[in-house]
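User: Can you model how pyridoxal-5'-phosphate sits in this protein?
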Amino acid sequence: MLNQTNVKLGKVRSSIRELFEYGKQRKAEIGADNVFDFSIGNPSVPTPDDVKKTLIDLIENTDPVELHGYTSAQGDYSARSAVANQLNAKFSTELNADCIYMTCGASASLTVTLNALLNAGDEVIAFVPYFPEYKVFCGHAGGSLIAVNCDGNFQPDLQDFKAKLSPKTKAVIINSPNNPSGVIYGEQTIKEIVSIINKSGLPIYIISDEPYRELIFEDTKIPFIMNYYDKSIVCYSYSKSLSLPGERIGYIAVNNRAPDFGEIYSAVLGAGRALGFVCAPSLFQKLIATCQGATSDLSVYRANRDRLIEKLTKFGFAFAKPCGAFYIFLKAPSGNAKEFAERAKQFEILLVEGDSFGCNGYVRLSYCVSPDMIERSLPAFKKLAISYNLI
Ligand code: PLP
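Assistant: Here's the modeled complex, given as structure tokens:
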């Protein structure tokens, strides 16, 4: 018999992927311009010109055998040391190349990290709303995801966090800026999370999932977890910041201040090996070695956010103000997310029903789309609001 867990996973798409596929089909039926697809976090802003030029230069001027060959399992030294240097310059850490493991994006960073840390039966805490794949990744690593509630502004409910900690808790995942709410956890929140863990006396790891680290639209700083907690691991991806989601490139950074740093890094190497996640794409590792600090033009997302906030508020929709990432988590006017997403579809607006994010009664709107599509979608949003008597 086949592994039934995997058969089941393969048969049921995530709600995001399901809607993304529906959107492709609907665009073929009625024309792309007539579908307002806010389903997936696929950046609409192109990768920067410098990145494109570097790629061309790498292809034209690097020995092809080297360019397309295997790198070290954990990644090329030059890519890993460029990452470490960039983190040190930005966050005053003292990392080196041997703290970094190059991966195929944040998904691989998370699965490798969770497989490195978890034993069967371990629990991993995530704050709702959370990226739905966390559940899948934890399950595959032999653990289970424990959801901690949030308040009305999607900030962690720290009393619930305290109550859910137990000797089974192996790790806590933090994702800020957050997918799907767009909220940021401030320094005080991070300090309180750390203080609760410290007071518990439990040997817990904090995993910070940071694909949206650079996508901040308010004058606020994202606390870098390594500066607050030693047993910490950062999972990063260039999918969003450099608009390279299809190229699959990211990294794991293990905090070398962790008392068991050597063991953690060995476990990361071991998990990467066991999962076959060795030797991330060579061309993109070489790119990363030279393009540290670059980002796509993220101002487009800020403009999209501001325009949507203005209009959706005017139309009577309710949501917590997103400060980063490129998502808005809209409250379903009827309280029923499925019904809201289905009704939005009648107006050709594609929104992901949010129950799978661990938070009932919301839908996710992904605004990393063209400003033009946002303008074209506004009359449809207005009609949707009217259908609920919001205006
Ligand atoms: N973590 C979060 C919070 C995400 O939103 C995503 C992708 O949207 C990922 C991880 C996976 O990122 P990647 O595409 O780099 O694997």
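A couple of observations from the model: The CA atoms of residues 127 and 140 lie 19 Å apart. Residues 41, 105-107, 131, 175, 179, 209, 211, 237, 239, 245, 250 surround pyridoxal-5'-phosphate (CB under 6 Å).
User: Helpful, thanks.
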